[in-house]
Amino acid sequence: MSRRNSFKSYALVGLVLLPTLNILFKKLCVVAIGPRTYAGVGFSLMHPGAEFAGEVVGGLQ
User: Which domain of life, per UniProt (predicted)?
Assistant: First the structure.
């Protein structure tokens, strides 16, 4: 294989590999950050705690 063909193959690997890694990294970040955000914010919004136990809306029971 000549030197020119090897440069073309490296360019092709770069064109295919880098966007793929970028997409995989973004998907990994969503999976890594999502549950932590839900645990910190979402769960406490859905289940506010003992001070709201038994109340349906506002102060109504």
Answer: Bacteria
